[in-house]
Every structure is written in C-alpha cells, then in structure tokens.
Design brief:
Number of helices: 9
Strand order of the largest sheet: 1-2-3-4-5-7-6
Helix content: 25-40%
Number of domains: 1
Strand content: 15-25%
CATH class: Alpha Beta
Order of helices and strands: HEHEEHHHEHEHHEEH
CATH topology: Aminopeptidase
Largest sheet: 7 strands, mixed
Radius of gyration: 20 Å
Distance between the termini: 45 Å
Shape: globular
CATH architecture: 3-Layer(aba) Sandwich
Amino acid sequence: MQSFASAEDYLTISDALRGFRPAPQAQLNPYTVKNKVPLPKGDFSILLHQREQQIGGYVEQEDKYILPVNVDIIFRGENVDVGGPGTKIGSIRGLVILLSLMCNTGYLDSFQEICDDHSQELSDMASKLFDERGKYQDESLSGADEGDILYIQEVYVEPKWRGYGIGLLALRGLIDTMPSFEMDKVLLDPAPMSISSNNAEEGCYPSRPLKETINALTKHWGLLGFKRVSKKQDVNYMETWTGRIKPPIEDVVPHLF
C-alpha cells in the first residue's frame, strides 16, 4: 500500500533542510526605474530555444556535459492574446554544466579539462572558482556547491526597453524554469556582461570606469539574491543557488506586475 507523508513529516523535513540553507536575506529595496518613457501595457515572457542533442555514436565531452541555453525575451501588448505574435526585445545566453552527469559517468575529475576544451571564457571561470572536481575553491561555500551549474554569459535588452528592470525579470524567470532539486548553482560575471551586451538596465555604460560599472552591476544583480563568490578584488563572479531563499520578483520589479 502506498503511504503518504503527513504534515508532521513535512515539518520534520523542512526543519532538517533549514540547517543546509542560508538565512533569509535582509529586505532589499526594489529596482528604481530609470527610463523616463512610460512602459507600454502588456505582458513579458521568455522563449527557450529548442536544441538537438546527439545521443548515439561519438560525442565530444564538452558537447555532452555542457549544453547551450538560448532564450528570447518577448513582449506582447495588452491587446495580443497569450501565444499570439510578440516582439523580441532581448535575449539571454548561457550554458548548463552537467556536474551530476560527469559524476555518474566517472568524468568528474575531468571538470577543468572539459571547461578548458569548451572555450576560454569557461576555462577562466572554472579555474578561478573551482577545483579540478567542480568544487568551490572557497571552502566556506562548500554547502552550496552541489548540483549542476547554470552559467549566464549575457543578458541583453534592446536599448528602447532598458531602464525598466526587464533583464532582472527575465533572468529570474529562466532560473525558475530550471528542473532542480534546489541545489543548482547560477553564476554570472557582471564585468563582461556590461560591455558585451551594453546592458544599461542600471544606467551603466561602457564609457564609465570599469570598477564603477562592476560595482553598479553587482548591486543590480544583487536584487535577485546574487552574491560575490570570491573576496579577491580581481574576481567579480556572482552566484546564487536554486535552494537559496530569494526575494519575490514581484517585490524586486513591482512596476512590471
């Protein structure tokens, strides 16, 4: 006979997990709208691109364990039905690093090598943050280094749509779609993102001093619960994980709801 967990069981599980989860974050101020043009009425959504994955024959390790994530940010005016034609106003590019699959297939010791073979960008990130088995070099983060990795390469918003916090809404939407047991890491580097995508969500432009830009972007992504991974001044990567208690997105960008 199938048994079901009682309310008491859930309470016990919750209490047990509480010791593994970071304490709730302090109350954050919501995003400050910087675009003076009134935002058109309508709805936002994200469209995840389909991908074809080879499952037979020889597959390169970097293609087997590192999967691309490509997302369109879509706006539909108030008179357009859900599923109707929308306007692409931005995009998100990223990679999913399947640490769990590496572990299950005996390739976890090849984490650094697989990242090196994929790209210089991924090699730099892996060497600065992780050891050869995909564990954080900083031992104080050892409780948050389980699961897979979603590495965000770029959040791009069209110039007309910047200054509303739409990038925050879209990235949070992507994170919330991840199939997870609440132990996956989400990483981004605010420095190249501000330059490669000209992301002016928070009023940062490439002409500003790099340190000032990084500080502004660190504060910007911090609204979603991202924190600096390293105390080293030359390492700007930020992380959150899907098990961390995060501020409700409705409180971060209330004007978009």
